[in-house]
Design brief:
Blueprint lengths: L6 H11 L5 H22 L12 H16 L3 H7 L5 H13 L20 H6 L5 H11 L4
Length: 146
């Protein structure tokens, strides 16, 4: 018989031990994992009957990006900032806190480093909601002057 994990109790322990991120961030990452598994399982050929597909840190970051934009839209950066999440590595910390507490599994190849350099938060979460004229203006400012 498999032991049942009380998610609420485990999250309470995690948040007490690591106060950087609130409980909501952990729930969000778990939901984003489902998004990533659905997205990348399609390309991997797994059926819905198979156990959930393992995703890499970079694939999970993509699931997080998609889920955040869907859930929070133009407020995504504000929500993440409120949660203390400012870079991909913060998501890695949340994930590995959950791994170390047996809420998530990992392979021997998975590490916190998998979340380094995922994406620029402004590009991923703010730019999609800027007016086209503002995006063009930012592009001009970022081009080198000869």
């Amino acid at each position: 018989m498999q032991k049942t994990i009380d998610v609420e109790q485990v999250l309470e322990t995690i948040v007490a031990r690591d106060t950087r991120y609130p409980r909501e961030a952990y729930y969000f990452v778990r939901e984003a994992l489902d998004v990533a598994q659905r997205k990348f399982a399609k390309s991997g050929g797994k059926s819905a009957k198979d156990k959930p597909a393992h995703v890499s840190g970079q694939q999970l970051l993509e699931g997080i990006r998609a889920h955040a934009l869907e859930q929070f839209g133009p407020l995504t950066l504000m929500v993440l900032e409120e949660w203390g999440i400012r870079r991909g590595e913060d998501f890695g910390e949340v994930v590995f806190n959950m791994v170390e507490s047996s809420l998530l599994g990992k392979t021997e190849n998975d590490s916190r480093d998998d979340f380094k350099g995922g994406y620029d938060f402004f590009e991923a979460f703010r730019k999609p909601f800027l007016p086209k004229a503002k995006v063009a203006e930012l592009k001009l400012k970022s081009e080198p002057v000869n």
